[in-house]
Every structure is written in C-alpha cells, then in structure tokens.
Amino acid sequence: MTGMAVQDALARLMKPRSVAVVGASADPSKLTGRPIAYLQRHGFDGAIWPVNPRAAEIGGLRCYPRIADLPGAPDAAIVLLGAGQAVGAVAELSAIGTGAAIVLAGGFGEAGADGAARQQALREAAGRTRLLGPNTIGVVNLADGVVLSATGALELHELPVGGISLVSQSGGILGSVLSRAAARGVGFARLVATGNEADLDVADLLAHLASDPATRVIALYLEGLRRPEAFRDAARAAAAAGKPVVAFKIGRSEAGTRAAISHTGAMAGTDRIYDAFLRACGVIRAERFADLIDIPAALAAGRRARGRRVAVLTSTGGAGALLADAAGIAGLDLPPPDAATSARIAAPLGVAPEEMAGNPVDVTLAGVKPEVFQAAIAALLDSADHDALAVVVGSSALANPDLAADALAAAQRDAVKPLIAYVSPHAPQILAALNRRGVPAFDQPEACAAALSALAAAPAGAPPAARDPGTLPPGALQSGTLPSGTLPSGTLDEAESQALFARFGVPVVEGAAIRTPEEAEAAALRLAGPEGRVVLKVRDRRIAHKSDVGGVRLGVPAGAVAAEAGALLARVAAQAGFAPAGLLVQRMAPPGAELILGLRREGAFGTALLIGFGGVATEIFGDTALRMLPVGQAEVRELLAGLRGAPLLAGHRGAPPADMAALTDAILAFASMGEALGPRLVEAEINPLFAGPQGVAAADGLVVLAGDAAG
Amino acid sequence: MTGMAVQDALARLMKPRSVAVVGASADPSKLTGRPIAYLQRHGFDGAIWPVNPRAAEIGGLRCYPRIADLPGAPDAAIVLLGAGQAVGAVAELSAIGTGAAIVLAGGFGEAGADGAARQQALREAAGRTRLLGPNTIGVVNLADGVVLSATGALELHELPVGGISLVSQSGGILGSVLSRAAARGVGFARLVATGNEADLDVADLLAHLASDPATRVIALYLEGLRRPEAFRDAARAAAAAGKPVVAFKIGRSEAGTRAAISHTGAMAGTDRIYDAFLRACGVIRAERFADLIDIPAALAAGRRARGRRVAVLTSTGGAGALLADAAGIAGLDLPPPDAATSARIAAPLGVAPEEMAGNPVDVTLAGVKPEVFQAAIAALLDSADHDALAVVVGSSALANPDLAADALAAAQRDAVKPLIAYVSPHAPQILAALNRRGVPAFDQPEACAAALSALAAAPAGAPPAARDPGTLPPGALQSGTLPSGTLPSGTLDEAESQALFARFGVPVVEGAAIRTPEEAEAAALRLAGPEGRVVLKVRDRRIAHKSDVGGVRLGVPAGAVAAEAGALLARVAAQAGFAPAGLLVQRMAPPGAELILGLRREGAFGTALLIGFGGVATEIFGDTALRMLPVGQAEVRELLAGLRGAPLLAGHRGAPPADMAALTDAILAFASMGEALGPRLVEAEINPLFAGPQGVAAADGLVVLAGDAAG
Question: In sequence order, which residues have a C-beta less than 8 Å from that of residue A43 and are 6 or more positions away?
Fold first, then answer.
C-alpha cells in the first residue's frame, strides 16, 4: 500500500483533533449511537462530525448528510455502516484526506471468498487513508479521553486510567480485558483492537506504543502474526524504551489454532515457533488468560525484583501456606528471614524471634493491630534475603478495608522492591482499592506466583539485532560474508554437508569422499592405519536415509574395507535401484554424549535452532530446546543447562564430563551457518554430534539448500 | 480415645437440638458475639444456651453463668475462650455429657512444645465428648441453618444453599471458599474446618458427608492426612454413594510443604505419594485453587459427560477461540458438528450449513436473537458427536442479562449432557444468576477446561478394596496366604531376591546360587552349555551395590567361569574387606526393552508401585509412574501406555514389539508380592526387567524386609 506514513496516521488516529462518525444514530441505545455518546462521556475535546443523511443533529452536534459535506479532512473516522456500504464510505473518506478510518463491520476477510474480495476492495478504497479493521471494536484511548468504539464494555464500568496499553487481535477480548481490569482497579492508557488487519496490524500498534509517553507496559492478545519482522522491530523498540511487553497467544492446541485461523484469518505457525520467536523478541508470554491482566498490572507498578527470593507475610496461616505453595511450584524461592529481620518483626508482637523465623512469616498473633503489620512489612522490605514481598490480606480486613489498603499503599510508596498483595476472601472492593493505590493485588495464588515470576525475570533489554561478530568462534564465517554463488542447491550428500559444517567452523569427524572400493581402502589405511577401524557410508544426494538401504557399516577393519565397500555399494544399488555416487570413509567417532543440532528456516520468523540429546532423549522424550537465531554464547550455555539431559554432559554414571567450551563453540559455529545462509538454508541437521572430554565432532549430517533465487 | 461413636457425635454436631456457646459476648461486633448472632440470623431452631458469668441475657436469650448451670447436656458446644481457659471448659462440657465441642482458639499443636502439651491436655479433658479443632473456624451448616462459627465470611454475603459440602483443614481457607463461592452463586450444604484435628479429622468428616443426604459433591482442602486408611475407607463410602470427591492439596512444593506442616502440624509425605494415594481413593485432584470451587460446581449440576468431545457455541469469535484453545490444551476434543446439526443451526440464521460446520460454532451473525441461540443450543445438546456443550456468554448479554440466563437455564433443565457457560466480559451478576439457576458458569477459560475434564472423567466408582484373587496371574500367591514366618528379614541377597520374585510368579532369568568357582563353572555348563556364556554376580547380603565392588561380569564363556569366578571373588574381597558369601550364575538375559519395577512401603498410605523404563529414561527423564497397591490388569496396561517411553515396547526403531500380556502379568505378580507381604516389605526393586518378544525376565533385583514384628 502507498498510504501515509503509518506512525503519522496512528498519531492522528490515537489523538485526533476531529472525528467523523459515519452512520451515526441519534439513538444512543443503538450500537451506532454509542460512539458519539462515548466520545462525549469520556471528555473528547476535539470536533465530532456525525454523518447521517437522515438526521440534522445528534447529541447536540450538527450532523452532515454526506462525507463530502464535512467541514474538513478528519484526523480519524469511525465507520458504523455494514460491510457493503463501508467500502464506498472509506473511498469517500480517502477522497477528502482522512487520516485513518476504523471499520467496525464484519463480513470481510473472516467470511469466506466473498468476504476476502470485499476486504481487498476496502483496501483499495482506502488509498492514502490508513485502515483499522475491518471487524474491529476500535480504539479506546483512556489517557486522552478519545473513545472510538462501540463496545458494550464502555457502557457499564468506571474505567480507571493507568500505564498499561493493550493491542488485541480480537475485539471481544478487548472488551473482556477492559471490563475485567476496570472491575479490579487496574487502569489502562490505550486499548486497540486490530481485527482483520487489512492494513494496520499489531506490529504497527506495538511500534506506536513503544514511543507513546502514556504507555509503560504493553499487553498483547495475539491470534497470529502477519509480519514477524516488523513485530520484532517494534518489540525491540519497546525494549529499548524500557517497556515490558506481555503477550497471551492462542493456538497452543490444534483446536485453538483452527479457531484462531477461522476467526480473523490469522497466520498459522506452530506454537513452538511462536514461543521461540516471542522469547527472541523479549516478550513475556502469559500462560493463563488472567495473566494478561495480572502480569502487566504487576509490572506497571514500576519495580522489578533482582532475584526470585520472595517473602510471604500473612495473618492467616492457611492462605499463607497456599500462597507459599503456589510460589514454590512456580520456581520461586522462599528463604526464611535472617535473625535481625525476625527480631524486628517479633519485637512489637512480644514473642521470641524464633517464632517469626519462618517463611511465610505468620503474624496471626497480631490480630488486627495495624502497627504490627506495618512494622513487619517494613522489616521484610528491608530484608537483604528477599527480592520481593507478597502480603496476604485476610478476612479480618473485611471489617475495615481501608486499614490494609492504607498500610500497604504507604509501604509501597517508599519501597524499592516489588510489593504485591493476595486477597484471600472475596473482597472485590479491597482488590480494586489496592490496585488503584498502586499495590498490585490478586485474588488467585497462582496469579501472585505468575506476577512474582514476571517481576523476577530479567528486565527487557534490547534483544540482539544480530550477533556481535566478535563472539563468533574461530573458523566461523561472519554474517553476510558468504559467497552464496558457490553454494550448491537442493539436498547435499553427507560429504558435502560435512564440508559445509567444517567451513563454518563446526568440528567434524575426519573422513574422505571417494568413489570406488579400492579408493575406500586406501583412504581407510590413511585415516586409521592398518590396525584401525573406520565407518563406511554410502554417499549420494538421492539417498536421505542411508541406514534404510543398508548404506552404513560401523567398525570396519581398515584392511577389510575394499571388500566391505564393494558389498555395501552392491547392497545399496539393489535396494535403491540405482548405482550410488560413491562412499564416505570416516574415522570412528570419539566417545561422548550424543547430541542433535538442527536448523530450520521458518519463513518470516527467521531460522530456528534446535538442540537436543540423541536417541531416545529426542525421539521418545522430546527433550529439545528451540531458539530463533541469532543466539549468543550465554544463551547456548543456558539452553544446554536447561535440557533435562544436561547431566549426560556432566559425566553421567562415571563417564568423563564433556568439553563444554568446545560444545558451545560448535553450536555457535553451526548457528553462524544459519545466520550466514539466511533464507538459502531450508534445513540442516547434525545427528549425532559427539561431545566428549576431548572435544566434539559432527559424525553425520544433512543440509538442504534453496536455490539462488531464495537468497 | 474412648469417645462416643464418631458418627453419632457428628450427627449431633451437625444438626444439634441444643447448642452451648461458651464465652459468648453480648456485643455482636466482637468475634465472641458473632456465633449467637449467626445462629439466629441463619434460622437455627434449637435451643441456644449462652454461657458467660458476666451477662444475664444475650440476644434475647437467658445466659448461664457456668457450664454446670446449663439445663441439659448440649448436643454441641462452641468454645470461644482462649487456649488456657478452653481446656477447663471442655472438661466441664464433658462432665455434663456434651456431644461435641468446637474449640476455636489457636495456641495448641501449631504453637510449639507448650502448645502440643496443651493440646494433649485438651484431648484428655474431652473424655467422651468429641472435639472439633482446636484452631478451627467451626461448622457452617447452611442446609440446616446451623452456623457454629465466627468467620467473617458469614458477615458480608448472602449464602446460597447447594449440594456441595466442604471440609477444610484451614479455617481461613474455608472462609475464602465460602465467600468466593457465594459471590458467584455457588451454593454449599455444609462447610467444616477441622483445624488441628486433635480428635475429629478430615476422614471422620468425609465419612459423615458420604452418608449425608444434603451433600451431592464433596470438596476437600487438604494440608496433610493423619489417618490415610480411614480416609480411604471414607472415600470408598463416598464413591459407593455416587458422590464425587474433589481435593485441593498443598505441599506440592518444598516451600508449601514446610508451610503446611508449620500451619497445623499436618503429616508430611511426598506430593507424589499423595497424588497416587488420592487417585487410588477415587478422588479428583484440583490443580488450581479456583478449581476447588469450579470443579465441584460443575459436578453438582449432576450430569456427567460420556467422553471428551466438547462443542463450543459462541456469538463472539474471539472468546470462542480462546475457550477452544484452553479446552484443547486440557486434552479435550472439539470435533465439528455433523451435517444435520450444522443444518439445524444454520436454518434459522438463513445461512448455508457450511458456515455452521466449525467448532466453535460461531453464531455472531445471529446478533442478539435469542431464538437462534436457543435453537443452536438445542441442536448441539442433541448432537451425537459431542459429549458436552460450553456456551460463551458475550458482552451483548450485559444489556439484557436475563436473556442469556433464561435460554441456558431452560436448555439445562432438559439436558442429559453437561452444559456449562463461559462468561467473557466482567459480569458477576450473570455468573451468579447462571450458577444459581443450575448452569455451571465460569469466568476463566481454564476453569471451563478443568470443569469439562472433570465432567468427562469416569464417574467415581468404588475403588477396589483388594484385588480380586481371580485376576492374579498364575503362580502368584494370594493376598494373606503368605507363610510370613518362613521369610528372612533385612536386605536379601540377589539370589534370595530372585527366589522371592519367582515365588510370586515373576519370571526371572534362570540362575544358580553357588559358593565356589568350581560350582560356578558346573552351574554355567548346565545353564548355558559348553559353548554358551553366562553372567556372574557376587552374592552377599552385605553388598547392595555389586557393580561398585567389581562384583558383576557379563558374557563370561562357560568354560572360563571357574577362573573368572575366582578372580571376581578375590576382587570383591579386596574391595569390600571381607570374603563374600558366594556367587550367582545366571543365563544371559534375553533381548528386550529394559524396565524398572519398584515397591515401597509408604507407612499408612500403603505400598506404592513404581514402573519406569531403565537407564536414562528413569535416571535422567524421570519417566516413571506411581500407583498405590492394589492395581488391576487394566490399570497396569493404562499405566504402561501412559509412560512417555511406551513406544519402546511397541517396537522402537525396528525392534520386535514386547509381549505385553507377559509384561502385564509380571507386573501384577510383582504387585501381588507387595500386597501379600504388606508392611513386611520395606522395599523391592527389579532393575532391569527385560521385556522382549518372547516374554519377560527379571535380571537383577533387591528386596528389603522388615522383621516379623512389623508383620
């Protein structure tokens, strides 16, 4: 599209000086009557231009019969017409120079082939005007009092303003999040539903919010990404601006993926790739739907934890234990307070410090003495042994809700560490009061645990744009330095694959590509000596699974290689139906743990790196980790340590430990191949890579390259 | 204790004709003023006898100065005094023949050594009177309007009556569950907090509720079980009465376990054992705290699903996709409706059946036409392709909450299948209205998924009391037939262990226990023939880890056994510092997948059976399953199929598949050993058990027996 600059249009859309409401009704109870009522109610101070040929005035405003009659080019327009009429209206809006148009109607891309054609017509009608939607619920900009929406969620609730902004690919979910958050006192700056994303998409909105001064935390409800690269750039901008991004994405199950695709025609992609991609973008992934409110609410308080050590303070033992258990399951640590902290808590209670030496710290004895509670909060916020504090609000607070809220809000004001509250009884008014006063408060123990985990995660730094060439292992080619013209295309044979690995600095088992049995024996004697043994493998691009055609022999004595090689070639020729191109003679692989490394191009998401252990570990237990390139040394180390099979590298059952530095270098070299080849690399696999005490070596591998055109 | 029969006392406690309120205050705003106010407010129609030397009348009732002055023996008493005075009061209550006394005060078993002594004094003071507590919040019997509690949760909410009863080991949690459930319209019959369980415990209450006509579903909040056998019996009684039991248990993390123990001194035990034990008791385990309300609420509607096929009906696409995704993650199936059902839904909408052929079924087009929605609900409840229906209530319902509730409640009345609702916007009034009208309604997609999973679980049948002897594999001894006097005690050596396995019908690798190298060679020639090979193992009760002292040799040629055996004995003697008792000569093990079987006595929980695959599968990946004995054939098959390593038995990578019937029989035979030996068996392990195409054989094993006294 050749529309106006996206960010300029978004600026006009989010804070317009003038808004055209096309198809406005004078009846505010109708859906088409809502937007003007909402604009007025939420204090929009710009010009509102209703367009309706059958009304002279709406809500005290002059109504224009046609778009062409408007007194100027509106910054934003909200189109309330049905799908059929909307296309014409958008063309007219474009003709007068409208900045951006919101089309609420469904019946476009989500509605079969006819709808897709109508959506294409809508795009064309928009011309230089940018489009939000169609099939959207619009924009709710609470920070500036600009509501361009017809969602019923705006009907019923007080809407607190806060530092969280939401972009949702579903309008219904936007309404759900807004109403739920409002009920618990969690405030939003802006909420935008992108609907069918015929033009403006979640990546555009993310980029807008990254530089939006009213937005401190960004929440995303995703069904699928249409432009992963643009999304990644926008996520980088958000990270650079110090704004955490939290995403809830459906499509984690087959049923959900189908539903997401049919809902707004979102782009498919396996959830595992999305997971790796969002991680690479520095996005925190929300697991439960409620987390999409809870985690941003915790982050919006502005304090991050330096570690995972949490203190739980309670005046009701049962709920304290429940919260501690949920935190423990989430991998948080609950160390006891040190002696000085225990003493400080115990003193006003008149009990021995030992009675306050546990975690949860249980001050049930305090009854409803607020000064004791406050002193305990202060002591635990000062404790050097804890990175965050979670306080249980029990049923004693019901009788005097302000007491708990006052104590927590006062403590929160001066706190450096995160302080959150778990409200044990049903007490929505206490929950909302705490959230409104800046104390993130939750009514589920699992929500507290998720929030504390997010607070303890490393603050979003800018994810690496590309790997620092200085971190490449010796021998690896640098990104962009590849003479791609010299690469073959299609499926490489074993020897070619090994040669390519070696070219990027991956250590490979020494071998020789030969054609005849006689050459094989000569090579074997050279590689292993007359007393040694070698591995024989058939070498032919047409044969991907060598073992299946009897094309592999291990431990062949060097002196018997000619005979074995001849038998192998005959066997493969009989099985495959053609004479293979030749053989690969390899040294026997060194002892060590067996790993699998894989690279796979995942379209616009980039190239994924897979690491796992060989044999049953990967085949049966699926113990693999997936990351998007680029990866750095620290990430590779962390990734290896995170595999369940990690003990296999540390010297399992008396085996010597593997050379971890060599293994990390080999993985980085393999990854550098993926970076350098970019879209030329369809897939590559090393299976197995032996990792032993004396280093590592790729023993077998496969590479599939795309033709030059893809480069 | 020699108190009165527990169930008689509980019947008096739960529905008393007279209640003494000891330490009652005339000020209803005080904690000690609440119980009489609550009794009166909730319509208790028996006699209330306040006891307070400083008041003549409380709440219009005559107040008695001392317990001895009461006009009779109360069925129940609630003691509102502090820990010190409570002991004396309970003694006086016992003296006049009180049925059961509730002691609210803390400061007993949960409060160190002094508290434990005071708790013991309290028990002794109670005599024939049964005790609830101390450190409890009491009894809330909504079905009969008998409230013997001081919980603040009773202060603030309307409390709907329903078919769920709760037993909680934490009083605070009881208040939390009660207030949360009430706010969402979920009704309870009875709620009891057992506190420190000095006398009456969760097992007693579970047994009471199993035969309570007002209770249809039982919810449990557990910190630990003091009497697992009694709990199991009570759970069986509930299952026999057709009442599902749902338990949320903390102690799933180390921090939570510590907190639970310090809270009420609950019995420790690993969560894995609890998990196996609760499963063996037929108890549904709730994963999230909210599930403890949500799953019982779904079950209380009285309909169970015959399978896991769920239809989702929505009028808001985004929330439908969200719900479908959560259901898919929980392992539910979402098949599309058949052509007839699609046509039935499409007809009133005037669209092609193909547009209603997905799942979720999205009737957004219907707008707010209730008749279309109702027709779709009816069609999906009739669909042969679905076992349950989940309906999304969107924001359009906010404008007219009754509409959705009416349609769903009407459909629910006639439904055979479960029907549940997911309420997408914040709409507590709709949620509560639906629940009150018998339609289980939830505000989290994950809650819907958990509820649907529970509805699809096999209805609780009575768990097996003991295995049917007819199902024992041939050769296995039957439970109770063991001549235990003939058993050794302590750690058995390899040969003794193998002999014991064989005695119970577990196939073992054939072998011979001998003493000298010469005997070994003779045995080897007999077992394997002159050309065969054997395994040599040291045999001595003092040597648990044979490999560590060089005590195992595999593949020894029969003719070389004498020499190898001599060397082995010398090596072990040098390593161990004593001459070993002898050798075990075994045939070479047959080829097959390697499994590990274990039995372990877990105190009063019974004996646990562990099954896993050998090597890295168990050591690294922890791919093991744990069940409490007894287990049946179907359970063993299901358990094997549920292991991630199951493909290893089906013929992984070209290996022939294992003889599953022989494997199942061997596991049942091993389990029968655990059943027959009962507490005599401390632990037993077979590692490895080879499972191949020609059958199975235990190749190595260990048994530890307790002395006769434990039998």
Answer: A145
Q: What is the three-state SS of B11-62? A: HHHHCCCEEEEECCCCCCCCHHHHHHHHHHHCCCCCEEEEECCCCCEECCEE
Q: Phi and psi for A528 in degrees, rounded to 5? A: -120, -10
Separation between Cα atoms, residue A100 and residue A9, nearest integer Å: 6
Pick from A251, A317, A427: CB nearest B172: A317
DSSP output for B57-122: EETTEE-BSSGGGSSS--SEEEE-S-HHHHHHHHHHHHHTT-SEEEE---SSTTSHHHHHHHHHHH
* pLDDT value of residue B469: 40
CA distance A294 to B545: 52
Closest CA to B136 of B267, B264, B19, B16: B264
- What ranges in A508-657 are assigned the alpha helix state H? 517-528, 561-576, 616-619, 633-642
Choose, out of B104, B275, B395, the residue to mutate when testing the contact with A (most A CBs < 10 Å).
B395
For chain B, count helices (H), then strands (E). 23, 30
Q: What single letter denotes the amino acid at residue B633?
A: Q
Residue B471 has pLDDT above 60, yes or no: no
Q: Give the DSSP H or E segment for A126.
A: helix A112-126
Average pLDDT, chain A: 90
Query: Could you read off the pLDDT of A142-165 as tens digits, one per residue?
Result: 999 999 998 877 776 678 999 999
Per-residue pLDDT reduced to its tens digit, B528-568: 999 999 999 999 988 878 888 889 999 999 999 999 999 99
For A404-452, give the DSSP string: HHHHHHHHHHH-SS-EEEEE-SS-HHHHHHHHHTT--EESSHHHHHHHH
Q: What pLDDT digit, counting tens, does each position of B273-306 carry?
A: 999 999 999 999 999 999 999 999 999 999 999 9
Query: For B674-695, what is the HEC assignment?
Result: HHHHHHHEEEEEEEEEEEECCE
Sorting pLDDT into bands at 50, 70 and 90, what band is B470? Answer: very low
- Inter-chain CB proximity A325 and B253 less than 8 Å: yes
Amino acid (one-letter) located at A37: A
Cβ contacts of B108 within 8 Å, gap of 6 or more:
B83, B115, B116, B118, B119, B122, B134, B135, B196, B198
**ipTM entry:** 0.93
Write out chain B residues lying below 8 Å of A247, CB-based: none
Contact A128, A100 (CB under 8 A): no
Identity at B428, one-letter amino acid code: P
Mutate to test the interface with A, among B254, B257, B289, B652 (most CBs of A within 10 A): B289
Cβ distance of A333 and B152 shorter than 8 Å: no
Specify the 3-state DSSP secondary structure of A519: helix
Three-state DSSP at B421 gives strand
- For A609, A637, A649, B540, the CA distances from A667, given in Å and listed in that order, are 9, 10, 14, 48
Q: Side chain identity at B88, as an amino acid letter?
A: G
What distance in Å separates the CA atoms of residue B471 and residue A625, rounded to the nearest whole number?
Answer: 44
Question: How many angstroms separate the CA atoms of B504 and A311, rounded?
Answer: 52
Are the beta carbons of B616 and A645 separated by less than 8 Å?
Answer: yes
């910190």: which residue's tokens? B223
Q: What is the pLDDT of residues A333-383, one digit of tens each?
A: 999 999 999 999 999 888 899 989 999 999 876 665 778 888 999 999 999
Q: pLDDT band at A476, cuts 50/70/90? A: very low
Mean pLDDT to the nearest integer, A528-533: 94
DSSP single-letter state for residue B129: S
CB A361 within 8 A of CB A380: yes
Averaged pLDDT, A212-235:
96
> Which whole-number Å values give the CA distances from A41 to A16, A156, A158, A172, in the listed order?
16, 12, 11, 22
Q: A81, A107 in Cβ contact below 8 A?
A: no
